[in-house]
Amino acid sequence: MTEEKNNFEEEITEIIIQLGETLTNKNKQYGNSFYEGLNDIKELFQNSDDKIMKKTHYFSFYVRAKDKLNRIKNLIPSKIPEKDKKDAIYDAVLDLAGYTILFLNYIKNYDK
After folding, report:
1. Angle between helices 56-75 and 82-109 (to 10 degrees)
2. In whole angstroms, how far apart are CA 52 and each of 5, 57, 58, 97?
3. Is residue 72 assigned to a domain?
4. CA separation for the pair 48, 45 (Å, rounded)
5. CA triplet 37, 103, 98: central angle to 5 degrees?
6. What is the pTM of this model?
7. Cα(first)–Cα(last) distance of the chain, in Å?
């Protein structure tokens, strides 16, 4: 059981490291476009009296996540070679995890 636990921890750690590297590299390529986009949407509705409109920037995350989920949904029945399909699905899930981490960080540290 200890060997299984160690393998699990190593596997998860490897994926977390890959996710961190992916987020760091994309941030270098694209800048803080994720946070800037959320802030732009938030600013559009900051003077709204509607409590829901004040959280419209949260829907931006939902849309991005839904795009990733739709990509995965469309890849599953696609006729591309299985190896390519598996790689594409892995990349899409990694992107989804990345957006989720970015949004959690936004809620915790930027959404004042």
Report:
1. 170
2. 44, 10, 10, 25
3. yes
4. 5
5. 100
6. 0.80
7. 45
